[in-house]
Target: Ubiquitin conjugation factor E4 A
Amino acid sequence: MTDQGNNNQNISRNPFAALFGSLADAKQFASGQKPPSHHEMPYSDDSEGSQSESENSDSIEDNDDSVAEISRSFLSRQELCEQLNINHMIQRIFLITLDNSDPSLRGGNGIPPRCVFLEEMAAEMDGQDWLDMDNIEQALFNRLLLLEPGKHLIYMTSCNAVNLSADRDAGEKCAIPFLYACFQRAKEEVTKVPEKLLSYAVRCKNLTVSNTRTVLLTPEIYVSQNVYEQLLDLLLEGVGRLDEVVEFVEEVIAGLLADQEVRTFKEVIGPVLDIFHSRVKDLDLCHLLLFSYLDLLLYFSQQKDIAKVLVEHIQPKDPDNGLQYQKTLLGTVLNISCLLKTPGVVEGHSFFLNPSRSSPQEMKVQESNIHQFIGQFHDKLHQLLKNLLQQSGETRHLLLSWLGSCLQANAGRTKIWANQMPEIFFQMYASDAFFLNLGAALLKLCQPFCRPRSPKLLTFNPTYCALKELSEEERRNRNVHARGLDKETCLIPIPPQQSPEFPQSYSLLTENLILTQMTLHLGFHRLHEQMVKMNQSLHRLQGTWREAQLAGGPAAEQLREQFERLMTVYLSTKAAVTQPGMLQNCLNLQASSAALLVQLGLNNQGPEHVQLSFPLAPLQSSLLCYVPEFFAENLGDFFVFLRRFADEVLESSAESLEQVLNFITMFMGNVDRMKNPHLRAKLAEVLEAVMPHMEAVSIGTAQPIMFQRQRVFCSYRHAPYLAEALIAVFVDIEFTGDPHQFEQKFNYRRPMYPILKYMWGKESYRESVKYLTKIKLLQLEKDQGEWEGLAPDAHREKESSLQMLGQLARFHNIMSNETIGTLAFLTSEIKGIFVHPFMAERIISMLNHFLQHLVGPKMGALKVKDFSEFDFKPEQLVSDICTIYLHLGDEQNFCATVPKDGRSYSPTLFSQTVRVLKKINKPGDMIVGFGLLADKIKSHADQQLQDEETYADAPDNFLDPIMSTLMLDPVLLPSSNVTVDRSTIARHLLSDQTDPFNRSPLTMDQIRPNEELKQKILQWLAQHKQERLQIGPSG
Model:
């Protein structure tokens, strides 16, 4: 503070001494006498008129000449009072002064308690120590250039009590906060000053804005200050009262836009966004300050000029590098999550620390808190994207271009190698958190049309995905910003004669839906896979840890730490992906996508939804050929995820479940609407996911709520067609990939067994499963020659149907409890398919092979310490196999086929089976029945042995070249020109659609009967039998 002694100056030099009647009055006032009454008022009143003025004129002139001279320099007392009021107003607004006189000479009201004395300017003013509209700009500029304004503070009133608030306000060092405070004080003056001073107050307010603009345009002048950081801090501090700051900022923005000669508006706002970016990257999800920054970012997105700069600012330097999008301001915000910031590095993580020492309730509370923060975070992200999309066309175009390019640059996230080489992955692509949050925000944008029966859904145009490379201008005009979709595999191939009809432009709904599905495809699927793997690893690690604890030693503690780290990662991941609001939004989207695909599958191109009905009409010019497979993959992946990790969500919407069942029923068994058999097989897993639970719940575990699922599944009006679709895809799996890929086919069929078992217990489904008995009718038609007169297409269709239905029974590669158990209940009423000539040998071969290992000489090789550890149930398997034999034993064809299994069958095997049945205490009727069946089969074996002796001398050209058995129905293979028995080649083609002699492609409709050879064989058989009859009696 300037020393108070410096205030003593010659009173006669003070122009305001003229306000007193005489110099003596002024001296009395300076000595502590009571000042004139108008000095005590904020604004001096000059209404006393000319009389008062004339009365005092003599006394003024009679005194000191200097005072009289100063007095005469003012035209009138009115002007004197006005100048006094302007000076006081400027002091109140800007907290600056040129007057360093004794505070006791000033009035108490209308003057701020502290001001910065502009000493250098006062020295240059040649005795003028008041501020007016002519010198305020210079004064304000000098004030802003002061490095330490607090060192220039003076008392403006006689009260010298400590006033920290006044010292802080007047001594503010930072230019932007100081000018904003001046702006606020000027606004207050505008509301208080008399009308004649209003224009001056407004000018002062405008000065704060123009000087703020100048400060931002010429920041290099203000050394040791970061004015852009000051502007950001001002906005942050004003988040709670943003309306107050916005008025000031909006006026500054208008000034910046009007004057872009020195610096463009982008060059001013860019540094502010850079500082914002550098700060926000260090904030955690549950940090309250984060949400202040997000509110500020929302303001940026609402202000059209800043919004445009923002979307320009986030464009990456290398648009082909996926990781670069994460390094932008928007990408940094999207990367905030409860997931680990650095994959695999738990140190420094804020969530789920020491989980083994926390109770389940404590972890549940922490997860709930995280979900609450994630929900608020996603709301902000959604509003941010929504605001930007609602701005100008250019801003919207830039944002959508950013999204489209980002998704294309990160397309490699779905590659198989990405999971195998994490080091390279994290250097190339944006993080899981980035895509999870982006997906959540886009899901919210989709919610207005995410209702299964919404007419808006039908405006979706999948031809968007068929567009190839477009120019930037075309993308802008046609609203097409996703890239690379023309290279995606679609649900069905585009027919050669069909060309897409592209509209002039696409709706925002079409683009939103496609961008959202692309984002989910790149993000959610990978996190799902990680959770499954972590879950498996945790179970293994927990078992190993417990064993180490029992054994003792340091290994137990190491395993505990390893378990803790992995558990932290798992719980953090689970909290991130199971946020209830996000899951509900995703459920709405996937159910709506299912409804949309069903409408496309119905060829519906109208404005209203069409009711699904069966049988389905043939497809004609369907738009399904433009729908990428990841639409169906996302749907399937999401519902399987819910079943595993968030089962309760499946109970939230019965309508959603019904839409999913419609989708599965239409597409799972229909190759015309979904070509990929692997994808259709995946739908069986989805069906299992949305069905009611059938597995037993362990004691102490809460029973899952399944009311909606049971109601929807049991009352589903298309139940017969759903069962038919399941059977169809079960068969089609046999034609996927290599015929020897047992494990893959087993995994595809695994979820189908419990579904079939559940359906078998429901009458509406059970009758549908029985349709398989049509195989018998088809076989009879064929055996009786009814197919011979059919047209080639009809004949091929019959063969295809027979082959498809026959393949249902091909279980010899599927060695599991579910397989045998399913056969056991199916064969109770469905027999024809399993005794089919093509399939009986395969069924019998599998059953005998099992029996040989379960009850025969090899049974000892299957013994392990703990059967339950490997889910091995030999007693149940033996019982189920015998049940199957008893169900099919009434069929003569089946019994006659059993001895033909030269690999495993022997009469001894069946007698050993009877012994085992007794040992495991099976019912007496089963034991007796199986014994009688064994005798029946043995008699067939004896008869076949005699037949073999009869046909032993058959000519070689009568024998099948593969099986070396007498051919009864020889057929000619077209490419190799080799004759084989029809049953032999039929069995071969079930698993390998090639000619076994030259590997050329081959199907059953290509083979031709060898009638000439067949007649020769029949003649030889008849002759041979006649000869044996003649030899028989004499023998």
User: Anything to note?
Assistant: The chain has 43 helices and six strands. Residues 508-551 form the longest helix (44 residues). The longest strand covers residues 114-117. The two ends are 143 Å apart (CA to CA).
